[in-house]
Amino acid sequence: MRFHGFQKMTLLDFPGKVACTLFTGGCNYRCPFCHNALLVTQIEDAGVYTDDEILTFLNKRVGLLDGVTITGGEPLLQPDLPEFIRRVKALGYAVKLDTNGSFPDRLQALLDEKLIDYVAMDIKNSKEKYAQTIGLAEYDTSAVEQSVEILKNSGIDYEFRTTVVDEYHTVADIGAIGEWIAGAPHYFLQGFTDSGNLIGNASVLHAVSKEKMEKMRESAARFVPSAALRGV
Q: Tens of pLDDT along 176-192?
């Protein structure tokens, strides 16, 4: 297995854990506002880390780090992911997975084997606007809907999150997402930022004002009382 990015320590990515973050390459979505274009549409060999290199690092950090976050791209595209996580878990680390929820069977398999301890799943938009938001001509949200239900019944801690872009999201959209994921323990609205490395045209994408973000949070909180803003 190969990773295209490696952050050796973070206090932010894995709630309650001192962790490192690993970035896989490749994604089945093409969200115009994605800030990780190099991991999606411009994957290069430069800076690649092998699983053995990562595991050697983790072996040396036992007792210093608590967890490992695996993000992307979309990690569930990687066929070697379960075996890699088994090796990470054997060292005693907790594992957090970031996913877009489009591979419910693979998500369920990891949960069944107790290979993941926390999941952060992106909810890109209301169901009606999903295809537009992820940069595809059409999209059946049934797989994402399955993943939502899987997490609700998983017994592990998890969060849903939405990166909010003024051109793609309205207050009503966020309210519809809140109704969809009602019962979730955590829902975060994240403000869009231009990383300088977007998939789409940055000149036509804009952040939502803090005032409007707060109205969105209130709309979602009718169904998910813990709804909160992150990075705003």
A: 999 999 999 999 999 98
What's the chain look like in SS3?
CEECEEEEEECCCCCCCCEEEEECCCCCCCCCCCCCHHHCCCCCCCCCEEHHHHHHHHHHCECCECEEEEECCCHHHCCCHHHHHHHHHHCCCEEEEEECCCCHHHHHHHHHCCCCCEEEEECCCCHHHHHHHCCCCCCCCHHHHHHHHHHHCCCCEEEEEEEECCCCCCHHHHHHHHHHCCCCCCEEEEECCCCCCCCCCHHHCCCCCHHHHHHHHHHHHCCCCCCEEECC
pTM above 0.90, yes or no: yes
